[in-house]
Write a structure and sequence with these properties.
This is Substrate-binding domain-containing protein. This protein has about 375 residues and is of the alpha/beta class. Helices cover about 40% and strands about 15% of the residues.
């Protein structure tokens, strides 16, 4: 089934209504989704190899803010999580807690449980606490528009993490800023890695969650990136809601292995957690942990993903978010908001981690950010 055809209005309405949910049970597009060609893509491959080499560097100096307001006092932050079972959401929450301790601020984490009702209730609870600021952690604020409007009306600054598709301030919904890497760069890096590693000849499955607009957009950008190489074939587009990944991914992987027993040699997932759930099915089918299929996660780079990459267990690479740094950035952006300043405008550069450049680490911690933020805050 092609997903790039026009969608009827009723379908658009249904998608909008389920933007936060895992109620879309998942689907897998078949071999009709193809950008195949027998001759590879020499020009695209050369460009991809250069991009991957840049993204794999680990010695990039801190390029974030070096100036800003000193620390304000006595603040309380409410972190509303889409679900704390999402490793990216949880990783940023930990960074927020760590940075808040440096500032002497308090943090309350409220778990939405991954459902629309739970997330709306969590955000309502956060507003009732009358915090100094609220973090929207990994969900679409347009699906909680009433609660966001209440926070705006109460003059509570709202900062998003992966809340809307682009970094920076947002008017609709009203966010002081949204913190994320550039989704185009993350999606492009994962596609480039596949093109470069396969010498322009790959047969790929993409795992995504179309119920989350941010994830759906990332998956479409991944498809566009793969399409730059005519030697790459998109075998399937597996749509599995993140809250259902534990139960749905093993079934989907088994089905894909049955359909493509020898053809499937690469995978890209919008979140590393799919490969944690894919591993048992791949292992049961006799697949080696070092591939194929060679798997790369286009986010979020949680510790378990690093462990799989480092040990060669059904994941070859990840394009991680610097989760802890982004948690510190959340606190810095709030401090700017409380001080009447503009957002910093910082966007972390894209990075690719493999066993060859991870140094055995279990997270991507770009150098220099803790010291830089402490110097800004006078801490």
């Amino acid at each position: 089934m092609r997903r790039d055809r026009a969608i009827p209005l009723t379908a658009v309405v249904l998608l909008a209504a389920t933007a936060l949910t895992g109620c879309e049970r998942g689907s897998s597009a078949g071999p009709g989704e193809s950008t195949a060609g027998p001759s590879g893509c020499p020009a695209a491959q050369t460009r991809a190899e250069a991009a991957v080499k840049r993204a794999e560097r680990t010695d990039v100096p801190w390029s974030g803010p070096t100036g800003g307001p000193t620390a304000t006092r006595g603040k309380t932050i409410a972190y509303v999580a889409q679900t704390m079972t999402n490793p990216g959401v949880a990783g940023v929450a930990q960074g927020v807690r760590e940075a808040a301790r440096v500032m002497g601020w308090k943090v309350r984490v409220i778990d939405g449980g991954g459902t629309p009702v739970g997330i709306q209730a969590a955000l309502s609870e956060a507003i009732a606490l009358e915090p100094s600021g609220i973090v929207i952690g990994g969900f679409d604020p347009r699906a909680t528009s009433r609660q966001v409007a209440r926070a705006n009306a109460a003059d509570i600054p709202v900062i998003g993490w992966h809340a809307v598709g682009s970094p920076g301030p947002s008017k609709r919904p009203e966010l002081f800023t949204n913190i994320t890497t550039e989704v185009e760069e993350v999606a492009g890096a994962s596609a480039d890695w596949v093109i470069a590693r396969s010498d322009g000849h790959a047969r790929v499955v993409v795992f995504t969650d179309d119920s989350i607009p941010f994830a759906r957009n990332k998956a479409q950008l991944i498809r566009k990136g793969l399409a730059r190489c005519r030697g790459v074939r998109l075998l399937a587009y597996a749509n599995i809601p993140i809250p259902d990944a534990g139960s749905r991914t093993p079934q989907e992987v088994s089905s894909l292995l049955s359909r493509f027993p020898t053809a499937w040699d690469y995978s890209i997932a919008i979140n590393d957690l799919y490969f944690a759930d894919a591993a048992p099915a791949l292992r049961a089918a006799g697949k080696r942990g070092t591939g194929p299929p060679f798997n790369i996660g286009a986010g979020d780079g949680d510790p378990s993903a690093f462990q799989r990459v480092n040990s060669g267990q059904y994941q070859a690479a990840t394009v991680p978010e610097p989760l802890s740094q982004q948690g510190w950035q959340v606190i810095d952006e709030f401090n700017r908001a409380f001080s009447g300043r503009a957002p910093s405008g910082y966007v972390a550069p894209v990075h690719i981690v493999t066993a060859a450049n991870s140094g055995g680490a279990t997270s991507w911690n770009p150098p220099g950010y803790r010291r830089a933020y402490r110097e800004i805050w006078g801490k």
